[in-house]
Amino acid sequence: MPAPFSDPVWRKPQAASRFQSLLASGGRADVVIVGGGIMGLSTALHAARSGMSVQVLEAGEIGQGASGLNGGQVIPGLKYDPEWLLEHFGPERGEALVNFAASTANAVFDLIRDEKLAVPFVRNGWIQAAHTEAALKAAANRDRQWRARGADVKLLSEAEIAAMTGARGYLGGWLDRRAGVIDPLAYTSELARVAAAAGVGIAERQRVARLVNAAGVWRVSTESGAELQARAVVLATNAYTDGLIPGLAQTIVPLHSFQIATAPLPPKLAATILPEGQAVSDSRRILVYYRKSADGRLVLGGRGRMALPTGPSDWAHLERALRRLYPGLSSVAIEKRWFGRVAMTPDHLPHIHEPEQGLVAVVGCQGRGVGLMTALGERIATYLSGGDARQLPFPLSPIRPIPFHAFRQVGVAATIAWYRLLDALER
């Protein structure tokens, strides 16, 4: 449910539908998808296009979770660069994974184009901004690896990054022109619209309470009392994962990503801040990320408190970051504050699980969920239609709960506080 003091800048398209399409109790679909975010809707759309009957069950409203509340940065790649992936996954799997990671932004922008989605977007790239010499060296290493593969990337000098961002304090950075920005709530809403048009049943406010496998048929029970049958079930709840699959929620650490948006920038200021509309993520331990919205606001986000916010002061650390980067914005009001929940895995990679035949779960966006989950949805749909597991970009892995998971978030909160102090000392 929406939390108090959470007022996002993103808005659903005026023509956005309410979805109440639910199979009659006892009805049967080829696939039931639990979760109506980007991952669930992308899977649903591609599964329906391949001829499967699909029912999506969303516990809240479409776009209410992180899929509609994120920063809208569409970034290809993963946390790890090609050489690391090849070393850890081997030449065959690693090469396939590198190619998949390179394609994730294309998956989003191709879908917007091909389906004529009413989604505001700019595709002029993503800047990874370096504030230390060590970060600049890492950017050069990343640039070397992706440039060798023909990616449209560029290492930025101190003067170039200052001109492209208008921000203070960077020594240089890295530009990946394959990336861009979108309105994430419009994108999620439009994904639901085209999926429904393709024949997908979508039901909002239908929380799934139980999954039971009976002789190869999955019985999906909702809190409202409906029971559906399916050949396969996809759990696409990511950071909102609960106890439906034993142990799965204990494989991730959910974090809150807080965001703020200024009032629309005055024209003179707007001309000097991200004039070409790129997205930016910095190199700090507790990074901040920012971009302009379609209506000319500066939107900035970063990690927030682990508990739910209680008032505007919970966003104060982001306001300080904004003033540090852009002192000229000190007189511009902060008009919007909101947050979403994201999922972290211990190895910083997405995980695909199939604990029982016909039950597939995907967790761990690692901050790149818009492109990653759009592209993964298509691969999962192919797998459900009879594809080989070797065609999945990530290998199927067993569910391994994090040891002492109940104490993990306490440790993460302490680590965030410590890293934030170290970042402050480096300014």
Write the layout of secondary structure elements.
Layout: E1 28-34, H1 38-49, E2 54-57, H2 66-69, E3 73-74, H3 82-89, H4 91-114, E4 121-122, E5 126-130, H5 133-147, E6 153-156, H6 158-165, E7 172-176, E8 180-182, H7 184-197, E9 201-203, E10 208-214, E11 217-222, E12 227-235, E13 253-262, H8 267-270, E14 279-282, E15 288-292, E16 298-303, H9 316-325, E17 334-344, E18 351-356, E19 359-363, H10 369-384, H11 405-425
Q: What name does CATH use for the topology of the domain at 28-121 and 182-252 and 345-391?
A: FAD/NAD(P)-binding domain
Average pLDDT, to the nearest integer?
91
Q: Would you tell me the structural class of the helices and strands?
A: alpha+beta
Shape: globular
Give the CATH architecture of the domain at 28-121 and 182-252 and 345-391: 3-Layer(bba) Sandwich
**Oligomer type:** single chain
Q: How would you name the CATH homologous superfamily of the domain at 28-121 and 182-252 and 345-391?
A: FAD/NAD(P)-binding domain
Q: Helix amount, in percent?
A: 25-40%
- CATH class category label of the domain at 28-121 and 182-252 and 345-391: Alpha Beta
Tally of separate helices: 11
- Largest sheet: number of strands, sense, barrel closure: 8 strands, mixed
* Radius of gyration over all CA atoms, rounded: 21 Å
The helix/strand series, from N terminus to C terminus, equals: EHEHEHHEEHEHEEHEEEEEHEEEHEEEHH
Total number of beta strands = 19
The portion of residues forming beta strands comes to 15-25%
Cα-to-Cα separation, first versus last residue: 37 Å
Low-pLDDT segments, ≥5 res: 410-427
